[in-house]
Amino acid sequence: MALTTYVEAIRQGIWEEMERDQRVFILGEDVGVYGGAFKVTEGMLERFGDLRVIDTPISESAIVGAAIGAALLGMRPIAEMQFIDFISCAFDQITNFAAKNRYRWGAGVPIVIRGPSGGGVHGGPYHSQNPEMYFVHTPGLKVVAPATAYDAKGLIKAAIRDEDPVIYLEHKYLYRRIKEELPKEDYVVPIGTAAVRREGRDLAILTYGAMLYHALEAAETLAREGGIQAEVVDLRSLLPLDKDTILGAAKKTGKVLVVHEDTRTGGIAGEIAAIINEEVFEYLDGPVLRVTAPDTPVPYSPPLEEFFLPNKEKILKAARQLAAY
Amino acid sequence: MALTTYVEAIRQGIWEEMERDQRVFILGEDVGVYGGAFKVTEGMLERFGDLRVIDTPISESAIVGAAIGAALLGMRPIAEMQFIDFISCAFDQITNFAAKNRYRWGAGVPIVIRGPSGGGVHGGPYHSQNPEMYFVHTPGLKVVAPATAYDAKGLIKAAIRDEDPVIYLEHKYLYRRIKEELPKEDYVVPIGTAAVRREGRDLAILTYGAMLYHALEAAETLAREGGIQAEVVDLRSLLPLDKDTILGAAKKTGKVLVVHEDTRTGGIAGEIAAIINEEVFEYLDGPVLRVTAPDTPVPYSPPLEEFFLPNKEKILKAARQLAAY
Amino acid sequence: MLTRERRATARAAAASPVGRPGGEAVLVPGDADLLKMLHFMKLTRALEYRIERKLYRQGKIVGGVYVGRGQEAISVGAAMHIRRGSGEEHDDIVSPSHRDMAVFLMQGVPPERILAQYMGRKTGLTRGRDGNMHMGDLRHRLIAFVSHLGDSIPVAAGCALTLRMRGTDQVSFCFFGEGATSRGDWHEGLNFAAVMRLPVVFICNNNQYAYSTHVSRQMRVERVSDRASGYGIPGETADGNDVLAVYDAVGRAVARARRGEGPALLEFVTFRMTGHSAHDDAGYVPKTLFEEWERKDPIRLFESELKSRRLVDALALKEMESGIESELDEVVAWAERQPYPEPEECLTGVYHE
Amino acid sequence: MLTRERRATARAAAASPVGRPGGEAVLVPGDADLLKMLHFMKLTRALEYRIERKLYRQGKIVGGVYVGRGQEAISVGAAMHIRRGSGEEHDDIVSPSHRDMAVFLMQGVPPERILAQYMGRKTGLTRGRDGNMHMGDLRHRLIAFVSHLGDSIPVAAGCALTLRMRGTDQVSFCFFGEGATSRGDWHEGLNFAAVMRLPVVFICNNNQYAYSTHVSRQMRVERVSDRASGYGIPGETADGNDVLAVYDAVGRAVARARRGEGPALLEFVTFRMTGHSAHDDAGYVPKTLFEEWERKDPIRLFESELKSRRLVDALALKEMESGIESELDEVVAWAERQPYPEPEECLTGVYHE
Ligand SMILES: Cc1ncc(C[n+]2csc(CCOP(=O)(O)OP(=O)(O)O)c2C)c(N)n1
Ligand SMILES: Cc1ncc(C[n+]2csc(CCOP(=O)(O)OP(=O)(O)O)c2C)c(N)n1
Ligand SMILES: [Mg+2]
Ligand SMILES: [Mg+2]
Predict the structure, then answer these.
(1) Domains in chain B: boundaries
(2) Which of B46, C31, D224, D259 has the highest count of CB atoms within 10 angstroms of its CB?
(3) With 0-12 CB in 10 A as exposed, 13-18 as middle and 19+ as buried, what is D248?
(4) What ipTM score was computed for the predicted complex, to two decimals?
């Protein structure tokens, strides 16, 4: 069977939704003629025409604002940020218009804002960011971050069908490195559900995005070398978080390690630590620990970026410390 | 002796720094002729002239961008956001230009961005926000939030003298409600230092801004009615956090309650929970708990806003639960 | 309340609609239109007077109050061209600014619900979640203003994009003040609409102040409409205190947009006859300017015009006014009886439920 | 390395400075200036060729590569007017864009440090923290570009604000592409500079594409300079492949700014003779356009001009080129020897230490 890459899975998901629902359209820089900087929208202009695949001026705020306006009139826009780093230019529209609109006067804003996030490809401070927490901290939004091709497709479909604004973070490191066989039939991955990627009783590693693979590798090594069985949870959805799965893993193992590529202070690990403290403190056999990027911009040069990114070794170190606690 | 209000303390701090240092200037909407929407800059135009007290167009991004440019050429700009809610329009300049500049090429950006934050005055979703976490999560920035007139003055001076970009959050509810006698002589409150406002052995309440007063009231009631002695810590500086004081309070009491007016998910309570877990888990006699605003926009109508905001009763409830743990 | 709402909607739709779906815009207002314009200018002034001078001072308004006194001709003259009452597929869509009370009224929002909004009541358009002119209702084809000036420009363009995709001749109306034109979003929105040739009419009330900031510190151009040439779209400036001039300029721009010829930027010069908000005494505005503009009051000018056309006389005006006042007495009484929202409602409606 | 740096700085400063502190700009370039321009156009082209066609393909460049091939006349003609080498109180300040390699060279940044930057080495201008043209150095009066297009416009205006406060006749130079003019920050920055009458010269390279997007989908105006009228500042369009036309237009705008008459918006029409970046084959650009613009190559045009003025002949050109090539051999060798930063350096320098 043919394997589908992560990036192709996103493309398929959008394509199928555009076939299924006339209200779905995409707008962004270079999404039409060029097919997108990472080719997520390749071929769409030809198939769907230039009113549904719109090359815009370099105006991230207008891209999102226009998507909001269209959504208010019943459309299902997908706004592409060429790199997710540029979402900062649309921050106001997203957090003040899209996020708060339903609450204020009942009119939902079903838009998807998506783009390539994450490091590992030497993109430097402006082509490697992980902006999730800016949006996880904004009531009214949803935030998802798939790690597998299956989820990439299932979550983009869920995001497009969602009645509320969804920030969809695709990890550019995974675009062509991850592939798998996908079901032929239509499916969605419900927003708000995590996936247990590996079962284990000794400790739980919670993570998402590209870090999932480092966590899984670390878990294998832990099992092989120390007989430690780590449960690995792929959060997938950062807002809302799947509390049941998170708390379940915490209760089962008593020891939780959160791993994220995002910088440390104010990262989602803190939120998870707080939830676990509040809800299942009595089950804890050790502190909630975290392995994260340090509090710096994402540096460009390979040795610096490697130092910056969490990896298997850093996870192993923290996991062993926690296991021994 | 004359008492100085919180808002007047800010004004004095800016004024004195402008007298002391020719490089300090202020720019923003209506800061000149009008003296600022909350009169923080009253009289400054007359004293310092229109090249140091600059009425700008309605262009938050240009206000911050221009401040950055001026700072790079050796100035010490203070950028006022008429309401801190509008800082969203300058988010990109702050997080991508100001925050990352020193790291990238060594050129510091000593700017202060300040404005009225917080709720309690029926300002609704766009005149009541607490945007701190957007900036606490951005390496390269500093974030302070004074609760007293003394700190308001000491921190604005520290912010102006700081070599890095500082977000200075003034709580509008406190502007005229809080007053105290201030020292005659020049002083600063160092960024990165918390203040213990009340000593106690049984549990620690960590908070900042307008919530400090609710926490102190709750602590009095706890002592009076249940003999529970709560330590109350005013964080003052949110980035960097004063870890020593936080961990000290956690070790001393074993029970920590974090209170913030900001919304819950992704709020600073999570970060504090993570730090405490990592560093002093073994001292904990109960979970790190939090009392925060719920995950909604700030509603306008009095009963809704009252429900939204943390207050003494909500703090008491959580504190009693924690004390009894 | 529903009865009231139906009544107001009916009233707003009743007077001859300006264009029929698919048809041409009518550029010369008929007598009924003229009277309708006068009515809504007066209703707006009277309702805002109640809010700013009565209820606010009585402490019955929850938050800030921004009125459009002296600017009524702009909202009214423009809103005459908003097609309404014929269903979603025909009606236009509107993004008013914070000084466009008349637009709400003319789109059929009952005055009492606007008052309930100002008073933070459950029956306000936002059910107490937001205040003053921050309200919308898609049934009335109104998109709520957000404080952040300029944000509504790209949103209005996005509405127009949808209309263009659907191939209808509907139009997106977008209102703002001259101060908002300094925002980046204003630029991005105008440029986007221009490049995509979208059916949106940009309507600027240049009341010469943005809070305390004079327009000369907001921009270096003489006229806001000078900005149009940077986008390759038509720009036009007209007297914002002459409701017929507004009616004419907007009518032409709307007709153009309906024909698929793209956006236009209209500037209506007027004056803010109050402080920025109810708590601002506008001490920074030279008294003489108020005097000068008082003489150009748009309602008085229009009354004279209609008198000279023998459409109204002193008695008719008096009747119109007392009709409005007694309606407003009722409206205020109704609003004051409205309940506040239940505290727990704070938690609902953040997401689709 | 310091020796090299001093050498490069000296070279950049050596040729006759265009204006003396406080004096008038010289609008007619002397022979030395003409030769300097040719030298820097050629050096830029050769250095970028090494980066894009050699080092990048050899896998020695860390990230993306954006070059200004075919656009050298703009950076060079403009940078001739940047006052430098006389200290902070006299020198101008510059915000180059991502296709302005020549500006870095002419400000005295040694080519080898630029290469080290591209290769992520410790001796690159950002010590490996950022890549390609994202570099600055206040000693060279260069402010580093951030990816986010348009962000540098308000920053350049803020620099100019400082110069105005200090009452000097220094100027802030601000470079960008036509695509960046769609950003909100571009608008806010231009408007701010115009209102405050700041000494900043806005220099747009209109290379007709922004990535794959043709300028006609970026704006509806014919010329970028049409946007100037929306700010009440002068706008001018000139041939961006004619270095003397650039020199002339920038010279006049700079002189104006030095006299305190405020900003100007200059557009130089050119063509991007490459893909957007080294990995883009520009398949979306009609081949005929490349052919057409190849004939207008700014370096060849300028060579003909200088030949007709008898300032250079074939031999002199050959010598100039081989001088550059052998310098670049050295430079590449030096850069390849440079160490990468230590991993732990990741953690330092976020704050003042
Ligand atoms: C982005 C932003 N910055 C600041 C404000 C604060 N503010 C509210 S109204 C106003 C003046 C608006 O002037 P203008 O656009 O001319 O409209 P007018 O009030 O005169 O009708 C300001 C500065 C805001 N609402 N949004
Ligand atoms: C705000 C923002 N959005 C998108 C991008 C991605 N991007 C990088 S260069 C570019 C095209 C720039 O075009 P132009 O301004 O004309 O400059 P040119 O590259 O043609 O010199 C784009 C879209 C960016 N850097 N910043
Ligand atoms: Mg105005
Ligand atoms: Mg270009």
Answers:
(1) 4-180, 195-323
(2) D224
(3) middle
(4) 0.97
Residue A64: both structure tokens together: 């999102």
DSSP string across A40-101: TTTTHHHHH-TTTEEE--S-HHHHHHHHHHHHHTT-EEEEEPSSGGGGGGGHHIIIIIIHHH
The set of long-range contacts for B309-315, using a CB threshold of 8 Å and a minimum separation of 24, is B309/B119, B309/B120, B309/B261, B310/B211, B310/B214, B310/B259, B310/B260, B310/B261, B311/B214, B312/B214, B312/B217, B312/B218, B312/B221, B315/B205, B315/B214, B315/B215, B315/B218, B315/B257, B315/B259, B315/B291
Instruction: Work out the percent of chain D whose per-residue pLDDT is above 90.
Output: 91
- Could you report the per-residue pLDDT of C194-241, keeping only the tens digit for each? 999 999 999 999 999 999 999 999 999 999 999 999 999 999 999 999
Ligand 1 closest atom vs CA B30: 23
Going by the DSSP 8-state scheme, the letter that residue D142 receives in this structure is B
What is the second-level CATH architecture of the domain C33-336? Answer: 3-Layer(aba) Sandwich (3.40)
Fold of the domain spanning B4-180: Rossmann fold (3.40.50)
In angstroms, the separation between the Cα of residue C341 and the nearest Cα of chain D is: 39
What pLDDT does residue A147 have? 98
Q: Which residues of C touch D186 (CB under 8 A)?
A: 184, 187
Put simply, the answer to whether D131 touches A88 (Cβ < 8 Å) is no
Question: Phi/psi at A72 (nearest 5 deg)?
Answer: -65, -30
Q: How far apart are CA B105 and CA C82, in angstroms?
A: 54
- CB–CB contact B267 A96 (8 Å): no
pLDDT at residue D14 above 90?
no
| Whole-number Å distance between alpha carbons of D225 and D238 | 10
Name the residue of D149, D203, D204, D293 to mutate for ligand 2: max ligand atoms within 8 A of Cβ: D149
Other CB atoms within 10 Å distance of the CB of residue C246? 29
Q: Is pLDDT at C18 greater than 50 in this prediction?
A: no
D98-121 mean pLDDT: 98
Nearest Cα to Cα of residue B212 among B195, B227, B224: B195
Closest CA to D126 of D346, D327, D276: D346
Rg (CA), chain D: 19
Which element (helix H / strand E) includes B198?
strand B195-198
pLDDT over threshold 80, residue A280: yes
**pLDDT for D133-190, tens place per residue?**
999 999 999 999 999 999 999 999 999 999 999 999 999 999 999 999 999 999 999 9
Protein fold of A195-323: Rossmann fold (3.40.50)
Interfacial C residues in 181-220 facing A (CB < 8 Å): 184-185, 188-189, 191-192, 195-196
Choose the closest CB to B274 out of A88, A137, A290.
A290
* Cα angle C11, C13, C14; round to 5: 65
In angstroms, what is the span from residue C219 Cα to ligand 1's centroid? 14
User: Is the pTM value of this prediction over 0.95?
Assistant: yes
C229 CB within 6 A, ligand 1? no
Residues of chain B with Cβ-Cβ distance to A267 below 8 Å are: 137
For chain C, what are the domain ranges? 33-336
Average pLDDT over residues A43-50: 98
Q: Chain A residue with minimal CA distance to D183?
A: A59
pLDDT tier for residue D353 given thresholds of 50, 70 and 90: confident
Q: List D236's β-bridge partners, or say none.
A: D266
Same fold, A4-180 and A195-323: yes
Judge: B300–C179 Cβ closer than 8 Å, yes or no: no
Average pLDDT, integer, range D64-79: 97
- Calculate how far, in angstroms, residue D49's C-alpha sits from the geometric centre of ligand 4: 19
pLDDT digits (tens, 9 = 90+) for B62-111: 999 999 999 999 999 999 999 999 999 999 999 999 999 999 999 999 99
